Amino acid sequence: MSWTGDPTWLAEVLRGEGLRVVEFPGWRERGHGDFGDLWGIVCHHTGGSNTPPSEIAYGLPHLAGPLSQIHLSRDGTVTVIAVGVAWHAGVGSWPGLPEDNANFRTIGIEAANNGTEGWSQAQYAAYVGICAAICRRLGYGADRVIGHKEWAGPKQGKWDPGAMDMNAFRRDVQAQIEHKAPRKGPGKVFNDEMIRNRRGQDINAGDMIAYLDEHTGQTLDQLGGPGTCDGKPFPGWTQLGGRTVVDALAAVGAALGIDGFADPKAGK
Questions:
Q1: Are the C-beta atoms of 110 and 44 separated by less than 8 Å?
Q2: What residues contact residue 255 under an 8 Å CB cut-off, 6+ apart?
Q3: Is the dihedral of CA 92, 94, 100, 101 positive or negative?
Q4: ∠ CA(186), CA(189), CA(190), 5° rounding?
Q5: Which of 37, 129, 139, 154 is buried deepest, with most CB atoms within 10 A?
Q6: Is the peptide bond prior to 161 cis by the omega test (within 30 degrees of 0)?
Q7: pLDDT for residue 187 is more than 70
Q8: 139-179 tens-digit pLDDT
Q9: For residue 267, what pLDDT is reported?
Q10: Between β-strands 21-23 and 78-80, what pairing exists: parallel, antiparallel or unpaired?
Q11: How far apart are CA 66 and CA 82, in angstroms?
């Protein structure tokens, strides 16, 4: 299944993949003309960690927007910018694409990233999800996903998306294409995301998970004996006669003659 013309289905398909999607105002009317046959996707980084979707929609003083069809933020939010052609690829070449004319045949994705800071788990997972959803809709494999550096490196010296092995990225995209059920999407918490705790404080999810893991383990050990947090069957404490805290409390109550208390070790 291929597609000719503007991808009016972008927002719907991306949401169907479980992604958090925002529709930029006017995206259905934005573009530098209409697409021909859609060949695939060109992946970019914006060059800045906090590049806003508005810059991709409206462009720069020297280059009119839209600069891509999709903007991807650091937290994995996907903003659909335009349905028509965008100025994102420039001159270049790649097998299967007309030389110097990828704009009219490819969907561009601009990810807010400076190219050297690496990729947060949330952003990378969303990048994979975007590409998988579009390729699946077009009936293509991940071989239809290329980096701007692959298209325009020799002619323009482009190196985006930086810090990304495109062959490894394509393997991840292909794996998701073949994964019939969409990802869980924005409901899934990633370690580098900021979340709000019950006191209203914004904290790193990974730090909270580490804190809970450590202190839950300590609590289990205190109640059941050393190693309980590792799955040991309530080994008890030596200083409590091999009893857990609960059993020791029961033994004290029994010794004091409190009704209902019984020492589990009595008579053993």
A1: yes
A2: 263
A3: negative
A4: 110
A5: 129
A6: yes
A7: no
A8: 999 999 999 999 999 999 999 999 999 999 999 999 999 98
A9: 67
A10: parallel
A11: 7
Which region among 47-61, 66-80, 197-211 has the lowest average model confidence (pLDDT)? 197-211
What is the DSSP-derived secondary structure letter of residue 86? -
What is the pLDDT confidence band of residue 201, given thresholds at 50, 70 and 90? confident
Distance CA(137)–CA(190), nearest Å, equals: 27
Tell me the C-alpha distance between 94 and 148, whole Å: 10
Q: What is the DSSP string of 183-245?
A: P-GGGSPPTTSEEE-TTS-EEEHHHHHHHHHHHHHHHHHHHH-TTGGGT-----BGGGTTB-H
| Separation CA 1–CA 37 (nearest Å) | 11
Would you say the pTM of this structure is higher than 0.90? no
Written as one letter, the residue type at 152 is: A
Task: Say which residue, 56 or 265, is predicted with more confidence.
Answer: 56
pLDDT at 2: 65
Helix (H) / strand (E) element for 21: namely strand 21-23
**The tokens of 174 are what?**
């292909």
**One-letter identity of residue 67:** L
What domains are there in the chain, each with its CATH number?
A: 10-187 (3.40.80.10), 219-268 (no CATH)
Q: Are 30 and 82 a contacting pair, CB within 8 Å?
A: yes
Indicate left, alpha or beta for 208 from its phi (over 0: left) and psi (-120 to 50: alpha). alpha
Element of type H or E holding 109: strand 106-111
Q: What is the pLDDT of residues 229-244, one digit of tens each?
A: 777 777 888 888 888 8
